[in-house]
């Protein structure tokens, strides 16, 4: 997770494997588990096993925790040691080939610990609910909503996050530092990042004999940006994926709310974010009593946002003063932000400004990742860019339990620091490949869908997310340059959640049901 925008490989390897590759690996891994010397694999790894019950069914599984070295044969390429945790359901001879899902968070600069330990893995840290003050770690427990019931899982930490590192075998410290710096610069970009993950997947499929498995990619936030670029890179290597799952999608930087001030005339983000402003104001009981329910409110706000509000923004400075005042008053009714503030903002209020102003009378700021979370404001005049109530509330408990789980269950010991996040975002190349400006990967997604018309897409979002608003994601999908026949391959899952649609148990239960159905319906 970590801020909106953070993230990471390139080479090719092909191997013809038997139809029973799943079974072969299961037997190999069980044999390996009995050995103390783990040198049989071409990388560092350690095996463990466990069970989890999902939907009333007990699932025995094998876990592989390891570091996979990338680009070791070409000194001109970045050299990276990538950390991962993979889970494989134990299977019997004759079982069908299991799907495999590669999972990562975003940032760029976020490790996969969020999706691993709070959502999809066999163990889960129950996250602290909204509006709860709690310092002690939440307990680690079996995850009754793990995705392991429908797919094997591979959680990947991007280079520079988790235990993943840029490495060098150069002779001097100065040379090593320079090589690592060069590797970082090469990877910290949309295509460099996707190239790194591509090489990992190619090596993983070969090492664990999973070339013939149905393949899925699941990313969150910037991880959805990575997914589109990664799908393209895999296609170049003749690897098709069966489906992609986009959590809190971030595919088009040009209509990001907080960057809109740098793009005068690009007004979509303002009317597309308005429903989330209204939902947040409703959640905190800041609206007049006329709105009976959240669905009723959202229906009215959508009608206003797509109609009068959008038309007013299109007129720009030509909008008449009386009409401007009328729009500002309506915006105030929907958001609880005074009309004079909307007027001073020229009817265009950023997510940062909204998050700071909504509960200002209480001395509180709401999270842009999930507006149901709020904390005391640190600075009443300026909001620190790296401060968000959600991350500051949830991350410490999650990381603490993950360290315990690594040692006690996965048997992984390391003297290194585990970086749940880093500052990669500030160094990331987010520029478009098509000219001036930031990225827009909608043409890339359209191209992949046309080249692989069987691939399906699941878009997941939450109404309380201001960092990657749900209505922006839906708008993006509605503007994909693809025929109607391919639009049918896209399905949607929206809920009363935020950037982490699994932050509470109700959201996690819905997420599991929707992804399980998606993988089950996509087939092999």
N-end to C-end Cα span? 30 Å
Helix vs. strand class: alpha/beta
CATH hierarchy: architecture of the largest domain: 3-Layer(aba) Sandwich
Strand content: 15-25%
| The CATH H-level homologous superfamily of the largest domain | Alpha/Beta hydrolase fold, catalytic domain
Helix content: 25-40%
Number of strands: 14
Number of domains: 2
CATH topology-level name of the largest domain: Rossmann fold
- Note the overall shape: globular
H/E series, N to C?
HEEEEHEEEEHHEHEHHHHHEEHHEHHEH
Task: Give the C-alpha Rg.
Answer: 23 Å
Any overview of this molecule?
The protein is of the alpha/beta class and 524 residues long. The chain folds into 2 domains: 21-254 and 397-403 and 442-522, Alpha/Beta hydrolase fold, catalytic domain (Rossmann fold, 3-Layer(aba) Sandwich), CATH 3.40.50; 263-389, no CATH class. The chain has 15 helices and 14 strands. The strands form 3 sheets. Strands 1, 2, 3, 4, 7, 8, 9, 10, 13 and 14 form a 10-stranded mixed beta sheet that branches. Strand 9 (215-220), helix 5 and strand 10 (243-247) form a beta-alpha-beta unit. The longest helix is centred in the middle third of the chain and has 22 residues, at 294-315. It is globular, with a radius of gyration of 23 Å. The protein starts with 20 loop residues before the first helix and ends with a helix.
